[in-house]
Amino acid sequence: MRRSAPGSGMRRWIRGRRCFPVNAQVGWAGRGALRAGLAHATKRFLPVWSGQLTPHVLRHFCASSLYERGVDLKAVQELLGHARVETTTRYVHVRAEHLERAWAAAGGRVAGRLGLTGEGS
């Protein structure tokens, strides 16, 4: 039996419904509220990004930022609600500097273990 992604039951329930109350004047916000609010804020505060910054782009940015700051890939997977880690790897964009630091750290550990630097475990 295939396990559904975390939160998928809630997404099915929300589909076609008013999502959440905003306040007494506005009433209920629908499914497009985040997208519309983001588009409005982008147009006003980041006009260069107008039409390009979407909730999906923010998911990519957040996943990449979390991973770059040391959050485990499995934890990022859970936060995004992905059933498979392969999907999460498509969201995480790793910068060249991050790869270089990882290679340097791994090289230092190997050299230490081989006694080439006087360090090691």
How would you portray this structure in words?
This protein has 121 residues and is mostly helical. It has 2 domains: 8-48, no CATH class; 54-121, no CATH class. Helix content is 55%, strand content 6%. The protein has 6 helices and 2 strands, in the order αββααααα. Strands 1-2 form a two-stranded antiparallel ribbon. Strand 1 and strand 2 form a beta hairpin. The mean pLDDT is 78.
Please tell me how large the radius of gyration is.
21 Å
Cα distance spanning the termini: 44 Å
- Helical stretch tally: 6
Record the strand order, biggest sheet.
1-2
Low-confidence segments, given as residue ranges, are none
In what range is the share of β-strand residues?
5-15%
Tally of distinct domains:
2
Number of strands: 2
Structural class by SSE content:
mainly alpha
Q: What's the average pLDDT?
A: 78
Lay out the secondary structure:
Elements (H helix, E strand, L loop, with lengths): L7 H7 L5 E4 L3 E3 L3 H13 L9 H14 L4 H8 L4 H7 L4 H18 L8
Antiparallel strand pairs: 1-2
Helix pairs in contact: 4-5
